Amino acid sequence: MTSTPMQLDPLENPKMREVIDNTISEFGDQNGALMVVLNHLQERVGFITKPMQAYVAEKLGVPVSKVHGVVSFYSFFTTEPRGKHVVKFCIGTACYVGGASQLIDKAKQVLAIEPGQTTPDGLITLEVCRCVGACSQAPVVVVDEANHGRVKPSQFGKVLTDIQKSEAAV
Amino acid sequence: MAYYRSTVLVSMDPACIDKGALAVKEQLINELANLNLSEEVQVMDIPRIGDPETEGPDILVYPEGSHYIQLTTATVGPIVIEHFIKGRELQQYKAQMRDVTDEELREPKDKEIRVILENIGKIDPRNIEDYIAVDGYQALAKVLGEMSPEEVIQTILDSKLRGRGGAGFPTGLKWKFARQSPDTPKYMVCNADEGDPGAFMNRKVLEGDPHSVLEGMTIGAYAVGANQGYVYCRAEYPIAVSTLNTAIEQAREYGLLGKDILGSGFDFDIEVRMGAGAFVCGEETALLASIEGARGEPRVRPPFPASKGLWGKPTNINNVETYANVPKIIHRGLEWYTSMGSEKSKGTKTFALAGDLVHTGLIEVPFGTTLREIINDIGGGIKDGKAFKAVQTGGPMGGCLPEEFLDLPVDYETLGAAGSIMGSGGMIVMDEETCMVDIARFFMEFTQDESCGKCVPCRVGTRRLLEILERICAGKGVPEDIPLLRQLCDEIIQDSLCGLGQGAPNPVISTMKHFMDEYEAHIYEKRCPAKVCRSLITFEILADNCTGCTVCARNCPVNAISGERKQTHVIDTELCIRCGICKQVCNFDAVVIN
Ligand SMILES: Cc1cc2nc3c(=O)[nH]c(=O)nc-3n(C[C@H](O)[C@H](O)[C@H](O)COP(=O)(O)O)c2cc1C
Ligand code: SF4
Ligand code: SF4
Ligand code: SF4
Ligand code: FES
User: Fold this and answer.
1) What is the helix, strand, coil percentage profile of chain A, to 5?
2) Crossing angle, helix B238-253 and helix B201-208, to 10 degrees?
3) Cβ of B450 below 6 Å from ligand 1
4) What's the alpha-carbon Rg for chain A, to the nearest Å?
5) Using an 8 Å Cβ cutoff, are B230 and B220 in contact?
6) Which among A76, A106, A135 has the least Cβ separation from residue B557?
7) Ligand 5: distance of its center to the CA of B198 in Å?
8) Rounded Cα gap, residues B13 and B11, in angstroms
9) CA spacing 20 to 30 A to B523: which of A31, B24, B126, B491?
10) How far are the Cα atoms of A119, A130, A148, B50 from residue A89, in angstroms, in the given order?
11) Closest chain A residue to B297 measured between Cα atoms?
């Protein structure tokens, strides 16, 4: 993901446009297709902009307001690009009891951003979520798709250096 | 390219480097050169091997796979000589064989009976033949070959199987209603939304034994007369989704799903649909709306899904674990099944133990096992020698129970009567350092965040409850807050449309009932007895204990700690945000809370 095309709507980017069209034709043709299409768009494109919502509405023959209503209802759907890496703190019960709020404090200090925000270099987005189902390893931090369990505040810097290192290695 | 007979991987984790991994590596290369082994043994960096904190610096030698730990420049030499010249492993520097047991699911303890969890970890969930080898799909064959739909329903009724999704509704009765609905087509839905934070029983079953759920659904579909099924799985469980999809494909290949299953003329197929991060979608009518592709908002019942569900058609919806029970009941028989459990609830229940216990993870016990047996005998009691304070069951709609309820036999009725609920099986055990007002506040934050907003009492009421609880935790509570909380709880319960709103006040009601002293301490004395609520505590470093190791200062997120190395450190209470990290990282018990 480079930074310049991000300014454009994915619909204006021929490659992304193809991804979007393929997704709609692959999943658009079943009962309850809207959720399925949106789930795959979120996964493949990374976010679902207003113009994309209008496009999906047109293609599936449903009102734009319905698409918008669905996108805004579910917390997994985002309308803006997130950072290249997403660091998610579980604040489910087990993780809360296990000290998740201290981890968040530490992350805020290290990255100087709040949950919901992305670092200015676009590298890392902090998010919170409710229970990823790995409660026996609370507190859990999810870095991209990988769960890190029993994270102590003192080890958290390492989670971030791992990301930065993997970036440097690319 | 040179041919190496061995490779030594050196962990280059930052913590290992801190502890001298670079010098160890240099020494290793020198030793190998001295012994003329440079051509034979290759040295490579690797990001991380073992736990850097306890095992670093460490190396891994291939092809043997020997893991040497806690190395220093002095120990590397002897290891190289023993290993590469004498061909022996130096045991004193070798890591113990890592404990590879699954932390989420350990070996069963004495009081457990594993029925639903029995195959997990023992069969390959991505190979249907493994499931068939443990008598999988025998129940389906029996049902399709020998039983009428009515007989299947009667068997499930006689088994007294109750829904494991929380409410405990008799499954056979639900199936009977769906069968009796005249409209067609009918649908079979599996609720795999598992939104209760702290619970992951359903995920484990889907990831470890997916065919048991598919088989149960197929038997149910035959009983109610459905030809299409959906599993609605939360988006947080991508591995469960992919395991399920593989299982469905394999079942189709084997003629266990699709047209004319096992030559019986019965057609049934299953699709997986994913949620998108909304807790309320676990509520059955919201879940159905979500499968239809809409916002997951609950609707008024009746009509119940059994008469008007998916796309307005009769729909049966059950939890993952409910379905997983079905093949076992059919295959092993009623006598076996009903021999387990309490009077009104037969069989077993899985729980996800979490919180301040020695052993956390999944367990499975017959209904009627007491909370004390679960917590002490299976969970190993409270860890770190602390005292028990409360056990929370039933998730955000559940309640907290204190010590005097621990001898209750666990089932739907007893937990309900005690002011909590059975729920889906999350069980969080809290020690004396947990503030019960803060826990109530935490749950209210959850429900107010997850309220779908459709009805006012739930949307506005939960926000008001949260504001009051936040105020109390901040030391700004007033005596009138207590009756106000009670009144709001009553209103929310009475006027909310779905189970989320109706259950949302439960954590507040149960903590007020059993831990009123803590509410009062916050309100009247501006004191948090468990020393948790940040506005009511201060942190201090005891000069007598502080060694000036600087660890706390380096970890404080707001740089509130100052002090020279080897000198007593001090906390600037103005800057301190009371996060408690310093107390956690100090190895000398020098940080105390006042
Ligand atoms: C807010 C709310 C959340 C729920 N979440 C779940 C859930 O995650 N999993 C589940 O099986 N049932 C959940 N339920 C219960 C379902 O509505 C329904 O009762 C259940 O799926 C029926 O299956 P069973 O009879 O097999 O228990 C929830 C109910 C409410 C009100
Ligand atoms: S009770 Fe709450 S979650 Fe349920 S429908 Fe009403 S607003 Fe939505
Ligand atoms: S960590 Fe403990 S011992 Fe070390 S400086 Fe801080 S208070 Fe003193
Ligand atoms: S409690 Fe947190 S903010 Fe306060 S001194 Fe300790 S580490 Fe710093
Ligand atoms: S509460 Fe964090 S993983 Fe379950």
Assistant:
1) 55, 10, 35
2) 40
3) no
4) 18
5) no
6) A106
7) 5
8) 6
9) B491
10) 16, 8, 10, 24
11) A73
Q: Which amino acid is at B587?
A: N
Do B285 and B301 belong to one domain? yes
The phi and psi torsions of B194 (rounded to 5 degrees) equal 25, 65
- What is the three-class DSSP state of B59? strand
| B401 and B441, same domain (yes or no) | no
Residue where one domain finishes, among candidates B337, B358, B391: B337
- Kindly give, in sequence order, each residue whose CB lies less than 8 Å from that of residue B431, ignoring residues fewer than 6 positions away: B355, B356, B382, B383, B384, B386, B387, B388, B389
C-alpha dihedral sign at B483, B484, B487, B489: negative
Verify that B290 and B330 share a domain, yes or no. yes
Which of the pair, B322 or B585, is modelled with greater confidence? B322
Indicate yes or no: CB of A133 within 8 angstroms of CB of B203.
yes
**For residue B557, what pLDDT is reported?**
82
Ligand 1 centre from B311 Cα, in Å?
Answer: 19
User: Do B164 and B309 lie in a common domain?
Assistant: yes
pLDDT band at B14 (very low <50, low <70, confident <90, very high): confident
| Residue B122 tokens, joined | 């023992």
The pair of structure tokens assigned to B392 is 């929370």
Q: Would you say B530 and B518 are in contact if contact means Cβ atoms under 8 Å apart?
A: yes
Atom of ligand 1 nearest to the CA of B169: 25
Distance set, CA A20 to CA A2, A72, B268, B386 (Å): 19, 19, 32, 55
Model ipTM over 0.95 = no
Structure tokens at A48: 């679902």
Does residue B121 sit within a domain? no
The distance of Cα A152 from the centroid of its chain, to the nearest Å, equals 24
β-pair type (B426-431, B348-355): parallel
For residue B386, the domain's CATH number is 3.10.20.600
The answer to whether residue B108 is domain-embedded is no
State which residues form the domain around B84: 6-93
What residues of chain A lie within 8 A of the CB of B440, using their CB? none
Helix, strand, coil proportions of chain B in percent (round to 5)? 45, 15, 40
Kindly report the number of other CB atoms within 10 A of residue B419's CB atom. Answer: 17
Q: B543 in helix, strand or coil?
A: coil
CA distances from B573 to A84, B234, B311, B566, B593 (A): 37, 43, 60, 21, 12
**pLDDT tens digits, one per residue of B22-44:** 999 999 999 999 988 888 888 87
State the best of A136, A145, A148, A150 to mutate against chain B, taking most chain B CBs within 10 Å.
A136
Using CB atoms, pick whichever of B235, B292, B395 lies closest to residue A76.
B235
pLDDT score for B98: 45
- The structure tokens listed for B171 are 């499954």
Q: Report the CATH number that the domain containing residue B173 is assigned in CATH.
A: 3.40.50.11540
Residues B446 and B403 in one domain: no
Q: Classify residue B408: in a domain, yes or no.
A: yes
- Number of Cβ within 10 Å of residue B100's Cβ equals 5
Domain count, chain B: 5
| Cβ burial, residue B57 (10 Å; 0-12/13-18/19+) | buried
Neighbour tally for A163: CB within 10 Å = 18
Last residue of one domain, picked from the residues B297, B316, B337? B337
Say yes or no to pLDDT of B381 above 60: yes
B202 residue type, one letter: N
Residues ≥6 apart with Cβ < 8 Å to B143: B152, B219, B222, B223, B330
Q: Which among B13, B198, B396 has the least Cβ separation from residue A135?
A: B198
Q: Which CATH number covers residue B71?
A: 3.40.30.10
**Bridge partner list, B357:** B382
For chain B, state the CA radius of gyration: 29
Determine the Cα angle at B307 with ends B306 and B308, to 5°: 100
pTM: 0.83
Under an 8 A CB cutoff, do B428 and A161 touch? no
Q: Is B377 helix (H, G, I), strand (E, B) or coil?
A: helix
